[in-house]
Amino acid sequence: MAGSKRSSLHGQWSSRWAFVLAATGSAVGLGNIWKFPYITGENGGGAFVLVYLICIACIGIPIMMAEILIGRRGRRSPINTMRVLAREGHHHPAWQYLGWIGVLAGFLILSYYSVIAGWAMAYVFRAAGGMFSGATGEQIGALFTGLISDPERLLAWHTIFMVMTMIVVSRGVQSGLEKAVRFLMPALFLILVMLVGYAMSTGSFTAGIAFLFTPDFSKLTPAAVLIAMGHAFFTLSLGMGAIMVYGSYLPENASITQTSVIIALADTLVALMAGMAIFPIVFAHGLEPGAGPGLIFQTLPIAFGQMPGGAFFGTLFFVLLVFAAWTSAISLIEPAVAWLVENHGMTRVLASAWAGVITWVMGLGTIFSFNLWAEAKLFGKTFFDLLDFATANVILPLGGLFIALFATWTLSRKVTMEELGLQGAGYQLWYILTRYVAPLAVIFIFLNVTGLLRFG
Ligand code: TRP
Known about the structure:
This protein is mainly α. It has helices at 16-27, 30-42, 46-74, 78-88, 96-128, 137-148, 151-170, 177-200, 205-213, 222-235, 242-247, 256-284, 295-306, 310-344, 348-369, 383-410, 413-420, 424-450.
């Protein structure tokens, strides 16, 4: 019985805090600092942010709790956890496909995540070399275009980032990660505070804040609602088994509820701070909020180019961004690696090498999306756009939907109550949100965007 197997073959976190740090490391990444600002800019600001916040609270947190509890109950890679828990409860073996979809999603997301992390690495050296100092918005924009239109440079950074990621994964995510996250996360936070401070001096701080926090519902299209919901999954690392596999290394006595709330709050705070740093700069320099994936790379360097000590702080910022991306990337591939070790008896090193090579090759598609294949579009989207859309807005919400259903329709109340350590109204709240609210919200938003159902 999985219930009696109290620790994972792959080891355990040394404490509850180690888990909180690792899961926060997974959650806080490019999603918060790169993706959140640019999709907020593309989708009109305030109303989009509001929907995103509601999705975090009503869908994200309950599903995060469900993922962690399933992981800790199963104590295996997501594929085997789903298989074993379904078998124990005499449920359909097809539940294990949920684990498979998660592994696939992890490969797909990491393949482009690594390319974007490569941009951040390239920017470490640009900042350190003083290339931003005194540069205009136009010059910074040209610098960005120069980078993404060169496939060789993108490939070099993508390769370096993948190697960095697979080295950590091959050594086991418990060792090393914990120490790194402990001081890097606070450092990243401090530098964001500083950037928000700079944003206050631009003269457009109120315009930036108003853009982020004043909802204009006329800008809220059904597609924007879907993107906001998809991003709630993406930013919390939900819907593909990353948090599940981290949960499988969680000690027995740790509170799943508390840790989930802490992780979600920290993650949200970082995203909002990034927004508050970036939009005032956008408005102060007459830039376009809907500039797309290059937004932070075209705005923050302006700030670093003008503030005293900008070369130093800019370098530090991009170093920390690379670290944040790194601690996220390893969680994307851990479900696949854990499964290879469990089912194919591979060593972690070999499993990591395989997973890394596959992801690396897939990353070429994203690299070319910005140059050689920039004109090759399907539904008006490049390969990268399609990959991002399919994973964040379709696969992750679907994965999350089935995780929620599995936790509340398949697992018994006794099991979930025991794992969550909740009773009474607290448990009821989680149960209702996970059993009804989150799944219906996902379905409703899907139907709405496909036009089968229209509200608003
Ligand atoms: N949450 C991370 C970020 O915001 C990305 C990430 C890591 C992720 N693991 C994940 C996204 C699992 C979806 C699923 O940058």
